[in-house]
């Protein structure tokens, strides 16, 4: 690997994970071994390069410019990677609250907390120029002397601008009509499931919260080519089950209870039907 520069800027030197920006630049394609996710939000902007990443047990391959978004708790690994130029933004939930930002720009369920779609966007040349301007300005702000007026607020504003533009890019590529009744209902349902999958498993219960009948809910999803409500619920529970089985010390019984299953045997049947592997088999085959 011929390294030219990996430059990292941190908002708080005493807590590097609070908010940081890394600029990656190689003479020739190389692998960024330090990219290990912790309990924070991460944005990887690969400007030039290719690779294959595993995110929540799904493989995503890219060979052109791409911006990837990941939230705390997601399972991430590099299957292969050949990067020439890129950026890595990482911030803790305490630095910038995505839930608060979501009320303003609806990024939650589009870029973050969206396990149902590809976790990346593909910017155009025009988009790239705008994103570069934001990050160049961010670098300037990072390099200001300690105690600069409104330093935190400026960095948060620039991060917000980067996310807003990324939301627009993502929505411009979506096949669903962004503001249609069906699409808005679909987004609301996904967010509701993401917040309650470990306590609510019934389509009827979710439909009641949304003020619609289960039958109508299913019809709305069918119109936009979305998976059925029951499928979305199942997929979210299975994903969390996989995370817990591999990255926690919970027993199968404890895992079942944490996901809202009173009967561990029923959880085992549910998981086995969805994955063709029992929880014990899945854990033993994937743990190193």
What's the structural blueprint in terms of helices and strands?
Blueprint: E1 3-10, E2 19-30, E3 41-55, E4 58-62, E5 66-70, E6 76-91, H1 98-105, E7 120-121, H2 125-142, H3 151-172, H4 181-196, H5 203-210, H6 214-223, H7 229-247, H8 252-258, H9 264-275, H10 279-286
Antiparallel strand pairs: 1-2, 2-6, 3-4, 3-5, 3-6, 5-7
Helix pairs in contact: 2-3, 4-6, 4-7, 7-10, 8-9
Helix content: 40-55%
Unreliable stretches (pLDDT < 50, length at least 5) are: none
What's the number of domains? Answer: 2
Instruction: Give the percentage of residues in beta strands.
Output: 15-25%
Mean pLDDT: 84
- Shape summary: globular
CATH class of the largest domain: Mainly Beta
Question: Using DSSP, what is the number of strands?
Answer: 7
- Counting DSSP H or I runs of 4 or more residues, the number of helices is 10
Oligomer: single chain
Radius of gyration: 20 Å
CATH superfamily of the largest domain: Jelly Rolls
CATH architectural grouping of the largest domain: Sandwich
At CATH level 3, the topology of the largest domain is Jelly Rolls
């Amino acid at each position: 690997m011929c390294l030219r520069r990996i430059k990292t800027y941190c908002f708080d030197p005493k807590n590097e994970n609070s908010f940081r920006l890394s600029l990656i630049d190689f003479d020739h394609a190389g692998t960024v071994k330090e990219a290990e996710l912790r309990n924070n939000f991460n944005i990887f902007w690969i400007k030039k390069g290719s690779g294959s990443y595993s995110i929540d047990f799904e493989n995503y391959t890219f060979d052109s410019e791409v911006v990837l978004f990941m939230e705390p708790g997601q399972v991430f690994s590099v299957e292969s990677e050949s990067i020439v130029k890129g950026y890595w933004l990482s911030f803790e939930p305490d630095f910038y609250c995505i839930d608060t930002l979501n009320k303003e720009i609806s990024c939650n369920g589009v870029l973050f907390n969206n396990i149902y779609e590809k976790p990346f966007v593909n910017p155009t040349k025009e988009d790239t120029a705008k994103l570069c301007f934001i990050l160049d300005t961010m670098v300037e702000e990072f390099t200001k002397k300690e105690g600069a007026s409104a330093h935190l607020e400026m960095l948060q504003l620039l991060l917000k601008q980067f996310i807003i533009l990324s939301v627009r890019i993502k929505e411009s590529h979506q096949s669903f009509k962004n503001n249609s009744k069906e699409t808005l209902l679909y987004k609301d349902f996904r967010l509701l499931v993401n917040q309650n999958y470990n306590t609510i498993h019934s389509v009827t219960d979710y439909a009641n919260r949304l003020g619609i009948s289960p039958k109508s809910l299913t019809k709305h999803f069918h119109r936009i080519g979305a998976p059925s409500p029951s499928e979305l619920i199942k997929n979210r529970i299975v994903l969390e089950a996989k995370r817990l089985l591999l990255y926690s010390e919970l027993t199968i019984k404890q895992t079942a209870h944490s996901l809202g299953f009173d009967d561990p045997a029923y959880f085992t049947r549910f998981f086995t039907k969805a994955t063709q592997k029992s929880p014990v088999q899945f854990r033993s085959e994937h743990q190193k």
